[in-house]
Specification:
The chain is of the alpha+beta class. It has two domains: 2-164, Trna Endonuclease, Chain: A, domain 1; 172-225, no CATH class. Helices cover 39% and strands 19% of the residues. The protein has seven helices and eleven strands. The chain has a five-stranded mixed beta sheet, sandwiched between helices. A hairpin with a 2-residue loop joins strand 2 and strand 3 (66-70). The longest helix has 19 residues, at 148-166. The termini are far apart.
Length: 226
């Protein structure tokens, strides 16, 4: 168990544990770093071969007339789960303020992000009790330091499923330029890039890129007005 392995290290760690949520301020001057416990959690994920991007985005959350920022610990790279990007949030010490902010984040961005909490063994029950609150859920899934192996195995299984799914789709695309086509000539490779630039119709790539389709639709609309 991770807890037994790291208990002594955690006792010796005198560094202040910081939240992933910055202090409320107009300029967002508070910078966040990882605690020793968080560092050890993400080192396990790195060793497993799962690719993550740390502190990848500054989300702005509004609380009345104030702005709050949320900088997630990490984003899983290379695959999605249930059509959402995966956030891994290691949280060593629960607080009521952070619970409210996680709820606020999921209310605003829950359709795009799948939030996985990693918490200490001793606080798992507290998190799960908060999850039952009438205000709404805090996370999509929760794991403790003791079951990191299960989390890593799930992530690998989800990646395999994602890779198998996208392998059924065309992996190369080109928007045909004149004189043979009426596109712009832009090219894309791989499922994610093609999805962004072209989009799919079923499992086939759209014949024109999104920009050209939009431009052709605009021209057609103007013709109908005349």
């Amino acid at each position: 168990m991770l807890r037994g392995k790291w208990h002594g290290m955690r006792e010796r760690n005198n560094r202040k544990i910081e939240s992933s949520f910055g202090k409320i301020s107009k300029e967002f001057t508070n910078e966040n770093e990882f605690s020793l416990w968080e560092t050890q959690i993400f080192e396990m994920i790195r060793i497993s071969g799962i690719s993550i991007k740390k502190k990848f985005r500054n989300f702005v959350l509004f609380s009345g007339d104030r702005k709050e920022r949320y900088i997630p610990d990490s984003l899983v790279e290379g695959f999605e789960y249930k059509g959402k990007e995966i956030i891994l949030e290691a949280h060593e010490k629960i607080s009521e303020e952070d619970v409210k902010k996680y709820r606020r984040f999921r209310g605003l961005f829950g359709s795009s992000y799948y939030l996985i909490m990693i918490v200490t063994d001793s606080e798992e029950a507290i998190w799960k009790e908060k999850q039952k609150g009438k205000e709404g859920g805090i996370f999509n899934e929760i794991y403790t330091e003791a079951n990191m192996e299960q989390l890593i195995n799930n992530l690998k299984k989800w990646k395999d499923g994602y890779d198998e799914m996208i392998s059924q789709y065309a992996q190369n695309a080109s928007c045909p330029p004149p004189p043979k086509g009426h596109g712009c000539g832009i090219a894309a490779k791989g499922f994610e890039e093609i999805t962004e630039i072209f989009g799919y119709r079923g499992k086939r790539v759209q014949s024109l890129c999104r920009a050209c389709r939009k431009e052709h639709a605009r021209k057609q609309k103007n013709k109908l007005k005349k």
